[in-house]
């Protein structure tokens, strides 16, 4: 075996979540009344465009969630040994970016290091110059002459590739229809056009994504697109790795809190009486503890646990992963109260409706009423609040990491990048690229998530449609 | 009214007790004083004597809940639960790890916190309402559309970026105000200007957008149609009728955060070096001073409960239809 698959806890949960989403998709596709609002989301330009951007992030995050340990070079007379370093598929796809580390900071697309170094010339004199980078622009014989032309060349090449890629992606459904379904080309075009998708937005966003992606890849082959950080690590690589962290926090937290919120919210609203009182007391109490402080307290305690039980975690990745998972858990514990209150109120309203009274009169069991009649009618509320919470959680990660109670400092995350950028901004000349990279990617993700949440809410919430 | 108030206050007591129990469980049961001592003294190979000494110095050397060596009521009072948790109800928070009285520290630091939080709250509310009203006035035009787009973009930026960029541009590049620090009297204005502006700017996106939906909801109601039918100008409709009625949900929604202004802002204060309660808390978290974190959790929850109480009262004051049960 060349490698040994590693399942981190968050990986398992991510794939559980993926399975749930797929099952839900199949379920929705089979029911016309559920399909309609989703079609509404996909027909709004912002909804479709933001969904595409999110999809790109999700693909990167998923690639980064398949982990393995590579086999070490085989020693004679020994069984196969595996490295302690846990890699992901994304790592191996970007192994050039990962391994091409410089000495320290270098600016985006630079060919020389950020700091001067003493070099000994051939005749024995020592001078202080900016040394050439090991990898950034190493293909250039003389950076002063060839740099601009090389960059222009790569940007042009990347743009062409991107346009071709976007074109192919757009033509694929057309080709599929003509070849597999044996429809004439013109007819296939008509059929697709009749789908009433916002084609202009689709073409636009596809081109933007494909072109920027290809240009970045093209440049990354010869340079550090976003420069390098203090230890010389490529900043583009760390931002791409941070995507998974952001997604995990945004999604797994929801996965954790959803069962609590659903169970307790419905119970409180449905059974009323002392059950309602107890659950209300529980969430008011939890809600009244300042969120950051509760998280801080819990994380401090978890740190003690990790340090007291080093034997539980066999690799560094397992340890950072545990911390990430724990952060999701504790964020989930602090954030289920809002949804729970919402569901309680809605259940209170629903249980007074005639059809549920009729079901009660027929002697239908509580369990059946809840699962068949109440739960489906709460679905849109859950969905809306899940997508609305996502962006807030991604932003919260950055703040928590700054406070020192976020993800492990060794983990790639936007919070950690911003945190280190704070000192870099005080340098002279300013090291601005790490902050900018975190800003660009985080902004793209959160903006897409916000816009997507808006169109989901517009499609599902009958009240908010006019506003 | 008074009976209602009393009932609400009585209802707050079990919640405070619940908070107290949760913090006690978090800080002492899940994580025993021995662990704490080991953490502070360094993890590796700490002798039992050193742990015992640390625990005695910090008053953690007692049984958790029940002391069977003591006599009489001492069996309950001579315990960690009584000394560290129950005493918080009497505002006795003990001393921090550097030996200072926490309650004194809190009283001193509440001032700077308020100096930032109150202007941010008041001016921020005004700015957000103004923006929201403008968007509503130009509703269904390009101005409104781009206003909303701008709001969504502004709220998609992490608050940390606002602070870092604000400090970098205004303080470092243009030298208009000091980067961070604090002083008393009129001189404090210099230090307060930037954090207040940055905090307001960071809040505009979500605030204005939210208020806009409130006003839009209000504008679809019957009384607005009546006002228009009477021939009132759009400007008058908006500012006299919609604003007044829209302010009810906005103000009652804002009341809940009023007491929490005392707590200050964690991030802003620590970035700008303002010696308020927010930076106090952050420092405590980073130096793992559990006594301070515990005290702040308790105070924060108490203030939140006061906020809930005020919200209930303001509902009854603002909207006569709400009956007191």
Topology record:
The complex is a heterodimer of chains A (467) and B (325).
Chain A: E1 3-6, H1 9-30, H2 32-43, H3 45-63, E2 67-70, E3 87-88, H4 89-93, H5 95-99, E4 117-120, E5 126-129, H6 143-180, H7 185-193, H8 199-220, H9 235-271, H10 273-288, H11 291-308, H12 316-350, H13 354-361, H14 366-403, H15 414-424, H16 433-460
Antiparallel strand pairs in A: 1-2, 2-3, 4-5
Chain B: H1 2-29, H2 33-41, H3 48-57, H4 74-77, H5 80-85, H6 102-137, H7 142-155, H8 159-173, H9 188-219, H10 222-229, H11 234-255, H12 266-272, H13 277-286, H14 290-318
Helix pairs in contact in B: 1-14, 2-3, 6-7, 6-9, 7-9, 8-9, 9-11, 10-11, 11-14, 12-13, 13-14
**Helix/sheet category of chain A:** mainly alpha
Order of helices and strands of chain A: EHHHEEHHEEHHHHHHHHHHH
Provide the helix percentage of chain B: over 70%
The largest pleated sheet of chain B is described as:
none
Strand content of chain A: under 5%
CATH class of one domain in chain A: Mainly Alpha
What fold name stands as the CATH topology of one domain in chain A? Answer: MetI-like fold
Uncertain runs of chain A are: none
Q: Work out the number of β strands of chain A.
A: 5
**Average predicted confidence as pLDDT of chain B:** 83
Average pLDDT confidence of chain A is 86
